[in-house]
Design goal:
Chain lengths: ~475, ~475
């Protein structure tokens, strides 16, 4: 297999056995990017010079015999809403086109400390709003499995980069499925950790109470390695939880015997592709054959999740994005005749359609006289959804559902159909509402396009979902399939 | 028809924490523009707030001192609006769950009255916009994220006098608890007034008018008086006030309109999702309660009891914690409390006023003040010389005994020396002697004055008086 198609842990072994140096590896990946970027378009900024010189420094440390962690010298990328000091962080928006943060996100700092090598910033839906990476102001990223299709969104650039061999892993952010849905479309592993497990400091917020940073990797083992690197309490994020250090590598157990798995009944209803249903049920059969107990479970409030999600996420985004007013950084309208006009023109010209749509929806939902009917009610729905999950987890260790109702759709197919686009997150959104962890792993193909299996766990029980995912992987080989580009 | 004025106040008070509300930046006043800033208080993309625990502690302290209930759980909310000096385009504040509620302050305007406090909540300050002459606006973000509490009263005050008393009392309570220095000139205490007027039978009620950003208690009182009259005049004409926001124009001595309040501003409050709920442990609150210093009211009563001071003195002395502490320090050294009080309330206060200074900045110490009083009481120096020495002490911080020695201001109490001076004066002013003998009592005062003049103020006046009388009456 080509070196760029190897997993991070395979590369780690090669680096540590000195079969390859970090510099060679980085140059190789940069060359790979040169070859395929024009087709895939996963990146908005490539950090080539810095990456190579940083790789040299890492090699020196390796030679000096410094203790190596699992991610030392591994080339990776970050979604462009994760702040990188001195390096463009644009959220794929015109309004932040020229923004260079003066500080690093906590996860950036943590990966730098691990000596992972930043290759660049990946494309995304503008401000993480979208499910196809088409709302980026720069370009639409292509799905490496089929260049006419979307990679999913909003972490589509990160997912495409990993799938196309343009990074060994990437970090994305997941507000309503933005890691799992593109992971599913691109046939890779994507984990949305429990809300609060990974610091959000330096993640340019879309919806604060839902956003969570997580890894996109080629397999479950890599996912555990990356998770190990980014978990930890951060005193810069007061929603960050002080969770006792768990080594997620220890969760990589090929065994599900006695585990109780719940099938989420409502997630298989109309709208879900028959082939996807079949792939998921085949997976469940595998678990059953290995001694897991599989039963159906109902979460009665599921049908309200998507609408409540859009109220809450939009409300928070209307406030989070208000700071982009053209006063201190980012884009400012050229001609204006008053302060108010400056605000209005800057935002009118700086934001794309989908962002404006959500800001307006959120502004409306929070407005005097509508707050109770929309925002307040959405919060109540959120509580009911949480309670549904709490009840289910009294009887089950993990819950299973499709990650997406369909496989990757064509570019342009849903861009003018916002509601249709929102539906592609229908299976992932409730998990964010409840703050739970969930992983998407490849579990089959339809017409050559990957299908995602979603495994949902209890709060802070990433270990169990990794174990279930790892068991599936060890007994199948969907994760070994690579794109041909 | 008789009218009653209803006044409610909203007071913003800057807390005396060393660092800002959501980050570690300094809250120090002054400093070059935009030097006390970081990604968090500038609201840069991706930055997140973390609540400073000291802010909660100070708010609880203030709440307890204002007799409030302290919430066991509260939260922060976002108040959304666009303004260039508001970097996140929302202010993090508290909306429907303030940290403190239902308190009161007792004031005394002839009779005691409780002014109810509706709520005290925590919020952050915004930056400062400066408009340069060429039309350019400059923004200083140093104040961004400086912690404030907003204190909101019920409309319980009915006159400018009550409002003034309330503000003074509030200021002294906050200074006592050391949660704020309440320096209005540095903006650490700002006051808004809500005022309206109703006829005695409630048949006529004027609309509530808000007067914003009063920068002194005097201005607040004047603004109230101005508005009171304006409301009544309008009601008398059968008209009403507009719901509007006004400001006090110091130069014109009147309030002027800032903006109409026809439409309620919609701040789209909602819970701050970047901060977790604030849980306040009741044991912690009790600990803060027991650590509170003696409040002005208690101190006042204690001063009356322990030092035998009249109410008037006790009230003035305890209105400022600094002054009360100073007073007690002096009394420790010099037990004549009434004499200390007299001196503090006259000479000392006058000097502070003239130099526009306050007790925190004085140059001399309580011990030296006690020394001065001792010199006077023992008769080493006269009362008038004492005043002169105090002035010098106040300006230079010098030891009064040294001043007395250096300038030779010791009082003359030697009978023979005084006799000599008296004789000289009597000789010089025979007409006055005659006047006195003819029953014109006033002449005595003149003669005493002349002796004092001859002695350059150093002669013991009681002795001079006695000796002159002795000579004249024989
Ligand atoms: Zn700061």
């Amino acid at each position: 297999m080509e070196i760029y198609h190897l997993t991070a842990h395979e590369i780690r072994d090669k680096l540590q056995n000195k079969e390859i140096s970090a510099k060679e590896l980085t140059e190789l990946i940069l060359k790979r990017m040169k070859n395929v970027e024009s087709k895939v378009g996963a990146y908005v900024y490539i950090n080539d010079e810095n990456a190579v010189s940083f790789a040299e420094e890492v090699d020196n440390r390796i030679h000096a015999g410094e203790i190596l962690s699992d991610l030392v010298g591994i080339p990776m990328s970050l979604k462009d809403n994760i702040c990188t000091e001195g390096i463009f962080t644009t959220c794929a928006s015109k309004i932040l086109e020229n923004f260079i943060p003066p500080y690093n996100a906590t996860v950036t700092k943590m990966l730098y400390e691990q000596k992972s090598i930043l290759l660049g910033k990946t494309n995304m839906d503008e401000f993480a709003m979208g499910s196809s990476t088409e709302t980026s102001v720069f370009k639409a990223t292509k799905n490496p499995w089929d260049l006419e299709r979307v990679p999913g969104g909003s972490s589509g650039g990160s997912a495409a980069a990993v799938a196309a061999g343009e990074a060994f892993f990437s970090l994305g952010s997941d507000t309503g499925g933005s890691i799992r849905q593109p992971a599913s479309f691109c046939g890779i592993v994507g984990l949305k950790p429990t809300y609060g497990l990974v610091s959000r400091y330096g993640l340019i917020a879309y919806a604060s109470s839902l956003d969570q940073i997580g890894p996109l990797t080629k397999d479950v083992e890599d996912c555990a390695l990356v998770l190990n690197a980014i978990v930890g309490h951060d005193n810069m994020d007061s929603t960050s939880v002080s969770f006792k250090g768990v080594d997620y590598k220890k969760a990589l157990i090929n065994d599900v015997e006695g585990l109780k798995i719940g099938i989420l009944k409502e997630y298989f209803e109309e709208g879900v592709d028959e082939d996807i249903k079949k792939a998921i049920f085949d997976s469940l059969k595998l678990f059953e054959s290995m001694g897991a107990i599989v039963e159906e479970v109902s979460l009665p409030h599921t049908e309200y999740a998507l609408s409540a999600y859009y109220i809450i996420a939009s409300s928070e985004c209307s406030s989070n994005l208000a700071r982009f007013d053209g006063i201190r950084y980012g884009y400012r309208a050229k001609n204006y005749d008053s302060l108010k006009d400056l605000f209005i023109k800057t935002r009118t010209e700086g934001f794309g359609e989908e962002v404006k749509r959500r800001i307006m929806l959120g502004t409306f939902s929070l407005s005097l006289g509508y707050y109770d009917a929309y925002y307040q009610k959405a919060l109540k729905v959120r509580t009911l959804i949480k309670q549904d999950f709490e009840k289910a987890f009294k009887n089950f260790d993990v819950l299973i559902a499709p990650t997406t109702p369909s496989v990757a759709f064509k570019i342009g197919e849903k861009i003018n159909d916002p509601l249709g686009m929102y539906m592609s997150d229908v299976c992932t959104v409730p998990i964010n509402m409840a703050g739970l962890p969930a992983i998407s792993i490849p579990c089959g193909f339809k017409d050559g396009l990957p299908i995602g299996l979603q495994i949902i766990g209890k709060h802070f029980d990433e270990s169990t979902i990794l174990r279930v995912a790892y068991t599936f992987e060890q007994n199948t080989d969907y994760h070994k399939k690579r794109v041909k580009l | 028809m008789k009218y009653q004025t209803l006044i409610g106040l909203e007071i913003h008070v800057e807390l005396l924490t060393a660092s800002k509300i959501f980050c570690g930046c300094s809250t120090a006043f002054g400093g070059e523009s935009n030097t006390h800033c970081c990604p968090v208080c500038l609201g840069l993309p991706g930055a997140l707030p973390v609540l400073n625990k000291k802010v909660v502690e100070f708010a609880v302290k203030a709440g307890l001192a204002l007799n409030c209930n302290i919430a066991s759980v509260c939260k922060m909310d976002r108040k959304n609006y666009f303004y260039p000096d508001l970097p996140k385009a929302f202010q993090t504040s508290q909306y429907d769950m303030p940290i403190c509620t239902n308190g009161y302050i007792e004031i005394d305007c002839g009779k005691k009255k409780k002014i109810r406090i509706k709520r005290v909540h925590i919020e952050e300050d915004a930056g400062k916009t400066m408009h340069a002459e060429d039309g350019v606006s400059l923004i200083d973000y140093n104040r961004c994220g400086v912690p404030l509490i907003e204190i909101v009263t019920q409309p319980d005050m009915t006159s400018s006098e009550e409002a003034y008393k309330f503000l003074e009392r509030l200021k002294s309570i906050l200074q006592y608890t050391e949660v704020s220095d309440c320096r209005m000139e540095q903006g650490s205490l700002r006051c808004d007034i809500n005022i309206n007027v109703k006829s005695e039978d409630s048949s006529f009620v004027s609309n509530i008018v808000e007067v914003k950003n009063l920068n002194s208690f005097k201005a607040a009182a004047k603004a109230i008086e101005y508005e009171e009259k304006r409301h009544i005049d309008l009601l008398k004409k059968g008209e009403n006030t507009n719901k509007e926001t006004r400001r006090w124009d110091e130069s014109k001595n009147k309030t002027v309109i800032m903006r109409m309040k026809e439409n309620v501003e919609d701040y789209r409050y909602f819970p701050e999702p970047d901060l977790v709920k604030i849980e306040i442990d009741s044991d912690w609150v009790e600990k803060i309660r027991t650590s509170l210093p003696e409040m002005p009211n208690h101190k006042k009563e204690r001063f009356i009891k322990d030092y035998g001071l009249p109410l008037y003195d006790a009230e003035i002395l305890t209105s400022s914690k600094g002054m009360a502490d100073f007073f007690e320090e002096v009394v420790k050294e010099f037990q004549d409390a009434k004499m200390v009080s007299n001196w503090v309330m006259t000479e000392f206060y006058r000097s502070l006023k003239e130099s526009e200074s306050d007790i925190e900045n004085i140059k001399f110490c309580a011990k030296d003040f006690a020394k001065l009083l001792r010199l006077i009481k023992r008769g080493t120096i006269s009362n008038n010389i004492g005043k002169r020495i105090f002035k010098e002490m106040y300006n230079s911080g010098k030891d009064p005994e040294i001043i007395v020695k250096e300038k030779g201001l010791m009082q003359i109490s030697d009978v023979d020396v005084i006799k000599e001076m008296v004789l000289k004066v009597l000789e010089e002013y025979p007409e006055s002697v005659m006047d006195y003998k003819n029953g014109k009592g006033r002449a005595l005062g003149f003669l005493v004055g002349q002796v004092m003049k001859v002695s350059k103020g150093k002669a013991n006046p009681q002795m001079v008086n006695k000796i002159i009388k002795k000579y004249l009456d024989t």
